[in-house]
């Protein structure tokens, strides 16, 4: 949205955007300020960290509201197939009605949670009751429900969609015996609608609502867990790194990085392929699962590859499959989330990821070299002068990871402070030094994109935590561990089964909900077989990394098809050889624990 | 449904399992207690929230969780208030009616009291007197604003941090002192990074098993007394076992290189003096002043009776 159209927006929409951006800005400024106070005066903002943690709740669910407005909620499929099949209008009304029903349920659950939390004697920073932050939950879900309905073009359609609220209310009032009968049909409808293009958070949220209702547990349990994950200490790093990544993508940082790697590695066989992989790795460490890498770099690198003589199919596959290749390197959000859910120290998990991450990059590079030699791709000669000049031009981008990594491992900063400093650093370098991002022109759009993306991710995270809460409540992880212990005899067999299971999970789930829902299931089983928690983390992450490239839910496939305007099936075919290479890496990481434990502490 | 942080297989978890069996027997199978151990139901603040909304009916909590229900509990955990288990036991037994009533008023019924050990300082440099600790970067719970203020008022240097970052913080140098119980220092392996322990009981970490009134009402009225007696019996049996575990943890850590620094009585008075400088920051913010005064009165009466 450019500033021209922004001026024509109704005031409350602008207020919404400005407020969300302000929340995000405070989340950057407060930890940086707090850090300065500690360094200079051994002092701190009273309750500073708790404010930032709770502001994440605001950023997340204001973001979810805005994502509903912008059509930014993640879906498993575009719905084109269903529209052809039953008619666009009918299909649109049905999905809107389901969305309204689920959001009404979630708003109700949030309201219950809000009322219960008003009894808490806890005061943030010594004065602020937590409900002040929690109030955003019922508000946001009510607005989201409205927005799904109002998005329908005709008045009749809007009325039918709003009927979803009545459906939700009726379901909550049904006698338990009837709800129990309706559970599986309701879940089936939601899963079916998921395949046809219902937003993921609606599907997971709906399933959680239905299951809790049938188990006679208050549905507020969903929002208790959403609150727990969103305000947990490491989570504010997610919005902060997303903001840093999008600030970076808005300027010409991508070009400078490409130039840097091109100057140093372009001379080698397969040089340009290596350059693309390294640039993507760098970008995806910050933006990871969001797919920003493909959107930001894709348009730049795909024409370059083809012009240099790489086959078109290979080039498309390379860009698509490199879109999440930095997933294991700090400050990857996927690693942070896994560590939070599995209760392992975040820096330890990052250290464990160094060798597997390098192997993954090296394997894809090796494949690129083979193709580069075979297709006789162009290789510019190496020149010291050019290499040093490119390094100098990219000095601020090179400095960026040093801020985060040096800050954490040097004992200067907490994780949250490192994330805020990174965002602040990127902001300063891109707006004040490079002057490519203009505060007045570009910032509103970057902040809007950030909160939309954050809202999309957190809407899913929140309901996925709710679903996990149901699984724990029903003691599923404990029973599953007992079953596997009784029926699977060897460690090797278990690992193989785990690989296949995770591959299947990766086909149908995104990495965030998979981490939240599946990790609590596999942790107790991994413990039974004596698998090191850090090794288990690597198995999980490398396996789920493949999920980006497997249909039907493969984020990179969608984004690539969308960005390069190619048919979905063609993109799937193009990534196949890369997929095969990555499967080899998955097997290597799974069956050679030493790779994950090499750099990990205490080994 | 009962939540607990105690890991599966720990004495605390076993005691709860025994209680579940006992309750099933006493109620002829009508009352079934499902236990969610090892924090699968979340940390203590999460369990308290789940009790409020009615997902959990009961929880085995430490003072950290209990104070989130009724702040009065914090009065038992004031730093340098007690010198021994005996003092704590005496004061708590006298105070119990008031504490139980405070919790009852907030919607939970106390089944039993049992503590989780004493908090000591684990540091990277030897600490005997408060002046040894003052230059060190001391871990403080993020979000506990009043406590952070109390540390500062007493001249210490707290670094607010989430508990999940203690291990990293100790190895990177972000912090170099942690106040915690020996059981926690051992099970999270913090003592490997902070090899000195100051032998001064800074504060007790109390604990209790509580059930929501809603959950308690679902138990047939005729059974309640019997079930409560069984729970009290569990607490009585558990208490000495937990205390033994505390000293066992110190023994194990000593074998693995922990150095315990004795604190002579005059220096202990300096610790008391220092702790009291922080009281003003806590009283009437996170703990009712009247309750602290009551604890002090009971303790002084006990000390006088003991002739100390
Ligand atoms: Na990432
Ligand atoms: Na997939």
Walkthrough of the structure:
The complex is a heterodimer of chains A (603) and B (308). With 603 residues, chain A is mainly α. Chain A contains 29 helices and no strands. In chain A, helix 4 crosses helix 5 and helix 5 crosses helix 8. Chain B contains twelve helices and eleven strands. In chain B, strands 2-1-3-10-4 form a five-stranded mixed beta sheet, sandwiched between helices. A four-stranded mixed beta sheet of chain B has the order 8-5-9-11. In chain B, strands 6-7 form a two-stranded parallel ribbon. In chain B, strand 6, helix 6 and strand 7 form a beta-alpha-beta unit. In chain B, helix 1 runs antiparallel to helix 10, helix 4 runs antiparallel to helix 12 and helix 6 packs across helix 11. Chain B is globular, with a radius of gyration of 19 Å. At the A-B interface, helix 3, helix 5, helix 11, helix 18 and helix 22 of A face helix 2, helix 6, strand 7 and helix 7 of B. One sodium ion (NA) binds next to helix 14 and helix 17 of chain A. The site of one sodium ion has 6 residues of chain A, from helix 24.
Question: What key attributes describe this structure?
Answer:
heterodimer, A: 603 residues, mainly alpha, 29 helices, disordered N terminus, B: 308 residues, alpha/beta, 5-stranded mixed β-sheet, 4-stranded mixed β-sheet, 12 helices, globular, binds sodium ion
